[in-house]
Design brief:
The chain is of the alpha/beta class. The protein is 39% helix and 14% strand. The protein has a six-stranded parallel sheet, with helices on both faces. It has a three-stranded antiparallel sheet with strand order 9-10-11, with helices on one face. Helix 1 links the parallel strand 1 and strand 2. Helix 7 packs across helix 9. The longest helix is centred in the middle third of the chain and has 23 residues. The chain starts with 14 loop residues before the first strand and ends in a 9-residue tail after the last helix. The N terminus is likely disordered.
């Protein structure tokens, strides 16, 4: 049986208990595990986190689950039983943080709502990720990534006019998880360094809808002050021009972007060799270029079509113009920016080792633990025994169904 990772990281000694499903809370707690926290994931004995079963492409495991659950310990408890709840409180009594993202009202029904926890565990940092926040007409609704992206307007600014699309990555889930992790770090910092201030702060709730409307800050601000709903532009931006994707002579796609007037002048003069465009008053400011985007895209597209990708990127680099190559996921897997910088590691899973990317933060003097993806209930016995449950009691709890079966 795998032992908890000894990381020596910034959060070494911090214990996180999490009751989580799918992606938002798992991303929060994976981030904390990457910083060295011990993360104990409480799962239902009957199947566990439903993300375990989305697919079976990773040697029989689900890609979503493998991605978001590295470095955690899995404990199976039936929280619909009194004994299961008692075991949960045994964990919470030894924890620094609780993270949950259950259905609306579930924490209240379990007796672990923020008000309950504040009384029983005043030092516990409790974070609840929900869909729409409390007190509103949608607060009762279940919320998943696509639903929240649609409700927040994100799908309306993605895709093409009349053809809205969901942004590919689960932006609402991931961003909410990261905001939750940031809140936890802030409260742990305050409680550790300024305990007199820490006592002032209570439980944290992060709403996926609030997170997405924050990420929608630019389009919402633009529309409020202009009265215009900006239309999606595929691989472009409504804020600046020229900025988009263009086909090259060797059937590749290059993305070229300008963000200011100086870059536009270099693009027009040094790359396109079009002083007529550079001198045209219609294109002198970004607002003018946005208004005449189609004409500029036509000129840039014609130039790119004459040259292969390598030439386009070399020329753009020499002119100080931002550029990138449009890649498929299969191409990113072998991207030289990842392989040359040694960003891939092997991690253990119940089905054997698989590659996994290092977490984004690079902290001098610290190697992330990159611990295993847990099997369902893999750590039930070791964790509960560590927290004072005798073997005879554990056997009784298992017989009554309060904990899951022995992991094999």
């Amino acid at each position: 049986m795998a032992e908890p990772a000894a990381s020596g990281g910034p959060l070494e000694g911090i214990t996180v208990v999490t009751i989580e499903q799918a992606v938002s809370a798992p991303m929060c707690t994976k981030t904390l595990a990457d910083f060295g926290a011990r993360v104990i994931k409480v799962e239902n004995p009957r199947g566990g986190d439903f993300a375990r079963h989305y697919d079976d492409v990773v040697d029989g495991m689900a890609a979503h689950f493998v991605w978001a659950n590295r470095g955690k310990e899995s404990v199976t408890l039936d929280l619909k039983t009194d004994d299961g709840i008692e075991m949960l409180h045994r964990l919470l009594g030894n924890a620094d943080v609780l993270v949950s993202n259950l259905a609306p009202g579930a924490t209240s029904r379990l007796g672990i709502a923020p008000a309950d926890l504040a009384t029983r565990y005043p030092e516990l940092v409790a974070v609840e990720i929900d869909g729409y926040g409390s007190g509103g007409p949608l607060s009762h609704k279940r919320a998943y990534d696509l639903l929240v992206q649609a409700e927040s307007g994100a799908c309306a600014v993605t895709g093409f006019p009349g053809e809205p699309a969901k942004p590919g990555p689960p932006v609402a889930d991931v961003s909410s998880g990261l905001y939750a992790a940031l809140s936890i770090l802030a409260l742990l910092c305050v409680k550790g360094r300024r305990p007199e201030l820490g006592a002032r702060f209570g439980a944290v709730t992060v709403s996926m809808f609030d997170t997405m409307t924050e990420l929608m800050g630019y389009p919402l601000t633009y529309t409020r002050h202009s009265g215009v709903d900006q239309q999606p532009l595929g691989m472009s931006s409504p804020a600046v021009a020229p900025y988009g994707a263009y086909r090259t002579a060797d059937e590749q796609t290059v993305v070229l972007g300008t963000t200011n007037d100086g870059e536009w002048q270099r693009l027009a003069r040094d790359i396109l060799q079009r002083s007529d465009l550079a001198d045209d008053d219609r294109f002198g400011t970004n607002s003018g270029r946005v208004m005449h985007r189609a004409e500029l895209d036509e000129a840039i597209g014609a130039w790119c079509a004459l040259h292969d990708l390598a030439h386009v990127q070399k020329t753009a680099d020499a002119a100080g113009i931002g550029n990138s190559r449009y890649n498929l996921p299969s191409e990113v897997l072998r991207h030289p920016q990842l392989t040359t910088r040694d960003r891939w590691r092997q991690i253990e899973t119940p089905a054997g080792p698989i590659p996994s990317l290092l977490p984004p933060p690079i902290i001098a003097g610290y190697d992330p633990p990159m611990a295993a993806v847990p099997g369902l209930g893999e750590h039930t016995d070791s964790v509960l025994t560590e927290f004072g449950i005798a073997e005879a009691d554990l056997a009784r709890l298992r017989e009554q169904g309060a904990v899951g079966p022995i992991y094999r």
